[in-house]
Design goal:
This protein folds into two domains: 383 residues, Alpha/Beta hydrolase fold, catalytic domain (Rossmann fold), CATH 3.40.50; 191 residues, Sandwich (Jelly Rolls), CATH 2.60.120. Helix 3 packs across helix 4 and helix 6 packs antiparallel against helix 7. By secondary structure, it is of the alpha+beta class. The longest helix is centred in the middle third of the chain and has 17 residues. 16% of the residues lie in helices and 32% in strands.
Length: 626
């Protein structure tokens, strides 16, 4: 039996079986949290917990109606917090409580006759309230029951969440349904934000305001640069109109927010793909609203390195920019856009429990003495290390005239046409000539070789047009069983549902805390695209300004690819594929490839000078032994 089940933290059930709930006390017999083995214990009654709601006044008027927007906050907390017990807060701010729903099962809130939530989405409330925490489910500004209009990660989205943290610490006002002021007299003010995707981004953004009282954030696949969620180096990586579509998708009243949505579309500038003031507001690393250097909260970050929605640089660039004294932990995985609650549930809940206890309760456990980073290298294969990336040495590989990839410069040229093609099409049969790519392979590796960090590529090239989409793929060639990110009715992002449920924490008549099980989705394949890079050539000098190239003139263009942590096994071959527009990033509104072809390719002929072309790889083993 796992340590999680031994502690009575999670009860496993099968579908259609009677619900089994672990550790439910008849009533709380203590006025303070109980600590055993460095962990809080479930001594408070979930069924008897106080459920209430308030509206926190934000500092913004996002819909322009002349009134500051009120943010709806739904609360569940131990009943003892009405009798002198002060509790910390786990806060989940989301734009998704209405549309489309929260988590993989698209949970929604349900309410009683007094407007209080009887079912909170996800299981954080079921698990942590019995251990002495309050749980807050916050409707982001403009969504569900909050006032205002969403701004697609803009200032109002961020400052609405910050206002809730301020209220918990006595610096902002809140009101009940009758308009009477409400104080958060039941809390210590120590707050942790948690969320996946947009929700994780909100935690990173609020932390970057430097707000006091936000002690920790758990950022799961959350972006830290709005630009990189919609663009990659000048190319559209989602679809035209994403900024307004995102806001309209989650808005409680899209019609009332039509003018706001139209301005988002205009300001985001799909026409050029350039970085501008709109994107700077949505830059949580060095932007105008939120900056990584201002983060005071500790950080637990999770990133799937095959995420096409929130790409790996959203984690790596922000992680590197955080102040050195910020306490931190990370999981780096081979999944896509995944919350580890669905991928590695028992270990995740156990780790999260230790983290919140240490950061919010002040419990003296060993979470900070454990290795800082968990890295997934393959199906069911995890390692730990002191930080991310791992210590590496840079190996520079160069394409050769014979189609090999070696360490010495070569001579000669090659060319291809910039047309939108899928990664699978461009990586398949690398020895076969293809007008839309150039492919180069190392000899078989004599030893396993691990990549950890951010590769870069440098191309010496000529175009016959003013610009082209420059695409680069790093490929692992060798038959193996790998995590597959294929989408089916029961699988996506590297996971597949396997039947049965896990019931987390305690339950009530309306909220059982039970969720489906998933596991690694694997398939045997001859190759896998490990990472990629793409650049609109006319943005090679600046993302804020387009500089068309002179046809026929030679240019040296160098840029970063997306980060990765991946092991190439002995006998496999590393492949470098040079190509054009990446059709896998032409996504539709469900995140599937080839959706709208916003980057169909320029049709330019790209001529590559092999002597000036290379890829630099941060390898744990240094130069690969070939």
């Amino acid at each position: 039996m796992s340590s999680l089940n031994r502690r009575g933290l999670l009860a496993a059930v099968v579908v259609a079986a009677p619900l089994v709930v672990a550790g439910v006390p008849a009533a709380s017999a203590t006025a303070k949290p109980a600590i055993s083995g460095g962990l809080t214990q479930p001594v408070f009654s979930y069924a008897d917990a106080i459920r209430e709601h308030v509206r926190v006044q934000s500092p913004v008027d996002s819909d322009g109606d002349g009134k500051k927007d009120l943010v709806r906050v739904d609360i569940i907390r131990p009943k003892e917090s009405d009798s002198g017990l002060k509790v910390p807060v786990i806060m989940h701010e989301s734009p998704y409580y209405d549309n489309p729903g929260v988590g993989y099962e698209l949970d929604h809130k349900t309410y009683d006759a007094n407007g209080n939530v009887t079912k909170f989405p996800l299981a954080y409330d079921n698990y942590f309230v019995p251990r002495g925490y309050a749980f807050l489910a916050v409707d982001m500004i403009g969504t569900r029951l909050s006032e205002g209009c969403p701004s697609s990660y803009g200032a109002s989205d961020v400052l609405g969440g910050k206002a809730v943290v301020d209220w918990l610490n006595g610096r902002a006002r809140a009101y009940d349904d009758q308009g009477k002021p409400v104080k958060a007299s039941w809390t210590t003010g120590r707050t942790g934000m948690i969320g996946h995707s947009y929700e994780g981004a909100l935690g990173a953004a609020v932390a970057g305001t430097g707000v006091r009282g936000l002690e920790t954030i758990v950022n799961i696949s959350g972006y830290t640069s709005g630009y990189e969620n919609s663009r990659i180096n000048g190319t559209l990586s989602w679809f035209a109109g994403q900024a307004s579509w995102q806001a309209e998708r989650v808005a409680a009243d899209p019609g009332r927010c039509a003018a706001v949505s139209a301005k988002l579309l205009q300001d985001s500038d799909d026409a050029t793909g350039n970085y501008n003031a709109y994107w700077d507001e949505r830059n949580y690393r060095t932007g105008t609203i939120s900056k990584a250097r201002n983060v005071r909260a500790s950080v637990f970050s999770v990133m799937g390195m095959h995420d096409r929605n929130v790409v790996g640089s959203q984690f790596s660039e922000w992680w590197a920019a955080l102040p050195r004294d910020v306490r931190r932990k990370a999981w780096v995985t081979q999944y896509g856009h995944v919350d580890p609650f669905w991928a590695r549930r028992e270990v995740w809940m156990d780790t999260l429990h230790q983290w919140f206890d240490h950061e919010l309760m002040g419990v003296a456990n060993d979470i900070m003495r454990q290795p800082r980073v968990d890295v997934q290298l393959g199906p069911d294969r995890w390692i730990t290390q002191a930080d991310w990336p791992a210590p590496t040495r840079t190996a520079t590989l160069r394409p050769q005239r014979d189609g090999s990839l070696g360490t010495k410069p070569s001579t000669g040229t090659g060319s291809y046409l910039d047309l939108a093609k899928s990664e699978v099409a461009m990586a398949t049969d690398p020895a076969t000539a293809n007008p839309n790519r150039l492919a180069f392979l190392t000899p078989p590796l004599q030893k396993a070789t691990r990549l950890s960090g951010t590769p870069s590529v440098s191309l010496r090239l000529k175009l016959d047009k003013p610009t082209a989409n420059l695409g680069v793929l790093l490929v692992d060639y060798g038959t193996d069983t790998r995590i597959t990110h294929e989408r089916t009715a029961t699988a996506a992002e590297g996971l597949t549902f396997i039947g049965g449920e896990d019931c987390i924490g305690q339950a009530s008549a309306d909220d059982d805390g039970c969720y489906r099980r998933a596991a690694d989705n694997t398939a045997t394949s001859d190759f896998q695209v490990v990472t990629r890079g793409i650049l609109d050539a006319q943005n090679h000098k600046s993302l804020s300004r387009s500089t068309p190239l002179t046809p026929g003139k030679s240019y040296q263009i160098t840029w970063k690819m997306l980060p990765q942590d991946y092991e190439f096994k002995a006998g496999h071959r590393l492949g470098l594929v040079l190509t054009g527009a990446n059709d896998d990033f032409n996504l539709d509104e469900s995140g599937n490839g080839s959706g709208t072809d916003v980057e169909p390719g320029t049709g330019a002929n790209v001529t590559i000078d092999l002597a000036g072309t290379s890829i630099s790889l941060p390898l744990v083993t240094g130069t690969p032994n070939m």
